Amino acid sequence: MDIKVPELKGVMGKATISAIYVNEGDTVVRDQTLFDVDFDKVVLEVVAASAGVVHSFSAKQGDLAISDQVVMQLREIAVAEQTTSEQ
Predict the structure, then answer these.
(1) Closest alpha carbon to 36 in 57, 74, 1, 5
(2) Of 19, 35, 69, 80, which is most buried by a Cβ count within 10 Å?
(3) Selection from 71, 82, 85 nearest residue 30 by Cα
(4) Are 36 and 44 a contacting pair, CB within 8 Å?
(5) Domain membership of residue 69 as a residue range
(6) What is the mean pLDDT of residues 34-56?
(7) Whether the predicted pLDDT of 10 surpasses 80
(8) How far is CA 11 from CA 18, 41, 45, 61, 63, in A?
(9) Domain with 14 in it: what CATH number?
(10) What is the rounded average pLDDT of the residues 39-46?
(11) pLDDT at residue 28 in the model
(12) Among positive and negative, which fits the CA dihedral 73, 78, 83, 87?
């Protein structure tokens, strides 16, 4: 699953990846914050749409990014698989 920089209506230009909360190989749960994107005066939290494992991250803190740019790949895992691995 591609994780992209969100589009912010009415805001033009580039954004900055202002914080990263996960690393490659980390297991994440749905709605977990992955990274923050700073658009001039607005900071948006980008969260996981589903449970998964961070497969790759093509940006680092401080990098410039544009809306709809893919910055992370998340390998989705089934909830049952996640529950089994936690036991």
Answers:
(1) 5
(2) 35
(3) 82
(4) yes
(5) 2-86
(6) 93
(7) no
(8) 17, 10, 16, 21, 18
(9) 2.40.50.100
(10) 89
(11) 97
(12) negative
